[in-house]
Amino acid sequence: MGLTGIQIFKLLPKTNCKECGHPTCLAFAMALASGKADLSSCPYVSDEAKEQLAEASAPPVRPMQIGAGDRSFKLGGETVLFRHEKTFVNQPGIGVLVTSDTDEGQLSEKLKQWDTYQFERVGFNLRPELVAIKDSSGDAAKFASLAKKVADESAFCLVLMSDDVEVMKQGIEAAAERKPVIYAATKDNADDMGALAKENGLPLAVKADDMDGLMELTTKLTEMGLKDLILDSGSRTVRRAFEDQVWLRREAIMKKNRALGFPTITFPCEMADNLDKETVIASLFIAKYAGIIILSDFIGESLFPLLVERLNIYTDPQRPMTVEQGIYEINGPDENSPVCITTNFALTYFIVSGEIEASRIPTWLLIMDTEGLSVMTAWAAGSFVGDAVGIFVNKCGILDKIKHKKLIIPGYAAAISGDLEEEVKESEVLVGPREAAQISKFLKEFAV
Prior knowledge:
17 strands; 448 residues; 5-stranded mixed sheet; Rossmann fold; 3-methyladenine DNA Glycosylase II, Chain A, domain 3; TIM Barrel
C-alpha cells in the first residue's frame, strides 16, 4: 500500500516554494498520495526521499514505453476511472494480427497498405501502432523472418506471440532494435519467459485463466525483477473481457492492488468472425480500459472511427485544444489579401484554415487567444467582443502587412462589427459566413 499524505509530507523539503504547482508542500503531498501529482514536479526533494516515495508517487497503473522508432508510444500511467476526474493519460495502441504462415510477399503488400492509414485531424496524425506476429507452426526461422520483415519494412511496433521460448528467442533476435512486446508468460513457461524478458529488457505480457492466476504470475515475475508487465485475463467473450477490463482498473486504482497495476492487452480479433464486429468490440475497449487492442486487419472505414474515438476520449476534457495566437499566412498572402479573424479553439482553426486553403485565395488568418473557446462561446463569454478583438488587431502587426483595413469576422460574431470598427480606426468590418463550408465562396467573391 502507498504512504499517506502526512507520511509523504514528512519526507518533503517543506519549503512551500510553489514550484510544483501546489500552494504548499502539504497540498503537494496530498496530491501525491491520491495519485494526482508526479514526484518529479518537486525540484528540491532529496534522493533518499525519492527512493522512499517511489511507491507512493507511482501511478496505480504502471507506465511503460512500447517499441522503438517513429511509432513507439507510452502505455499505462492511468490514475482515474473516469476522464472527467482528471484525464486519461496514454492512449491504447491499436495493432493487427499476422500469423507465421503468412506469405512474405503478401505481408510486404499489407505493410505498405497499412502504412497509408494515417489521418490528419485537428493537427494530429492519427494512425495505428502495432503488428502482432503469432507463431502458428513452431517454425522459428519463419517466425524470425516475418519479425525482421516488419522491422525492416515498416515503422510499426511489434508484439511477438509464441509459447515456445526457443521460437521467441529467434524472433527477438531478428527484431531486437524495435523493442518488441513478448507474449506471453503463462503458468507453464513463466520462469523461461521472465528470464528472456529480463535479459533483453523487454515488456512481457502475462496470460492466465482467471484473476488469481494473473496475480500469482505478476507477483512471481516482479519478484524476479521484472517491472514492465502487460495483462491478458484470458477472456475471449465480449462480456467477460469487458468486465475483466473494468475489474482490473478498479483493483489497481481504487484498491491499490499492485499485483494488477499494469496495462492490459485485448484481442477483438479472437472474439468475432468479421472485422465489423471486431471494430465494435474494439470501441468498447478503447473506452474501458485496454492498453493494447489487436484486430485481424486494418481497413480505413473501421480504423478511422476507432482512431477518432481514441483521440476524443484521451483529450483532456478540462482543457480545450488550442493553437497559438498570431498571424497565419495561408496560400501566400500579400498586402492586398483579405484578413480573416477567428478564435484559437483548435477545431475552429483547422476547419477554417482548411477551407481557406481549399479556396486557393491568398489570405491572412488572425487567431486570437480566447482560452480555447469557439466563436459563439467566446462571444457569449465576453472574450471575443469588439473592443478585445480590436486591441488584438492593433497590436498583432497585421496592419503593417496590408494596404487595406478590411477585416472579415465570423458570421456568428456579427454583433461585434460596430465596436471593432471603432477600435480599429478607418477599418471596414465585413461579416463572413456562419458556416465554414461557405468560406471558400465568400473569399472568391471578395477577391473579385
